[in-house]
Amino acid sequence: MVSLASISGIGSGNYFARSLGIAVVCLSAGCAKAPFISINTPSDTERSEGRALAPDAEIDISGYLKVDAIYDLKQDLGDYFDFSALENKPRSHHLRVQGRETRISVRARHVTQMGAVRALIEGDFFSGKHVEPNIQMRHVWGEWEVTDTIRLGIGQTWRNFMSTSSGIPTVDYNGPAGLMNKSRNAQLRLTHNSGPFEVALSIEKPSFESAALQSTMPDLTARLQYTLPGGASVLFSSVARYFSTAVTPTMVKGDQAVGWGIQTAANFEVMRAVNLSTSAMVGAGLGNYLLGGGQALWQEAGGKLHLNTALGLFAGATITLTPQLSTNIGWGYAMRNTQEATEEANFAHGTNLATTSVTKETMSIHVNLLWEPIESMRLGLEASWGRRKYVQPDSPGTNRNACQRRSNSRPLRRSKSRPLA
Known about the structure:
Elements: E1 2-4, E2 7-10, E3 22-28, E4 37-41, H1 44-48, E5 57-64, E6 68-72, E7 94-98, E8 103-112, E9 115-124, E10 136-145, E11 150-158, E12 184-194, E13 197-204, E14 219-227, E15 233-244, E16 256-270, E17 274-284, E18 297-299, E19 305-307, E20 309-320, E21 325-336, H2 338-349, E22 358-371, E23 379-392, E24 404-417
Parallel strand pairs: 1-23, 3-24
Antiparallel strand pairs: 2-24, 4-5, 5-8, 6-7, 8-9, 9-10, 10-11, 11-12, 12-13, 13-14, 14-15, 15-16, 16-17, 17-20, 18-19, 20-21, 21-22, 22-23, 23-24
């Protein structure tokens, strides 16, 4: 993957700087995701009749191997394109090779008199950005088909607010800005299907970015999806979040706030070979729901909470050139309210609570070429560019009006993807 970076800033001294660079991001190799082990258990009736056409129990084990070679010419952003790490730093080169996205999945299905039960356990080795590779549980999910149209699910899987049809295939683990950030969560979900319509309601584990917040209420989400003939789909989703702080010796009083978010997304095919994908989300307190959107809120020393308003946009296309060759292009954008970002930076500037920058705007572009020369093998070359604009205090504990507005773009990333047989 290749990443192009530029840095610009405006401050009290009219500071301005710009730099360009190239980085190679990913040489990846991965096996096909089709099951390589499948166990089917016939029912007693099928055994007695000597047939096993519709087993009442199935277990599929699948996965793939993926290796990434990452070379950064601007700055080291880790094992994936981390927009929050884009800062105004001296240029540095870095090479990294890792296989942390290697994945294994176990799927099971059992048919009972009360309906079918399904389970999914899936993991990879992306347990953290700057730690040694450890197993990360991506999905631990079980579903019960209560009726032909109603499913009850529990465990950890994709957030219900998320549009699983939006976005483009990328070699980079993180993907474009403006889409979902922390995309999997523990939850209880009820799903109803009626023809082309799917309605899902979920109660999800709250995931806050501040240790001072209390987890007293779950996130509540709702999603409506309509699938058109030919595979196109339109989605609307919403989320409500509750934030609260407790009274501590350092806080005069606790506070509470209700965050919200709405999203719309569409995915449709044009001229058979071109698939377009778009999405837009807006809300207050979105935080880790929006990639590149910064924190959900900030907190004064006395405990008062301030929700951050943010907007996320994405547009992309998948173009099938041949049955084995395709290209993907994606543009992502996330923006915070400028006044709110400045107020947060000013508050940090007037205290010794923080010295880090406050993200105001993030933009990314991803372009890749994916080739499958044989079954179970994929080769890829990806280029990505990113820019982050941020507000940063000059020095904590001094003049509250001396914040700088800067932007930093990541060097162009080039990625090659290639599955191993």
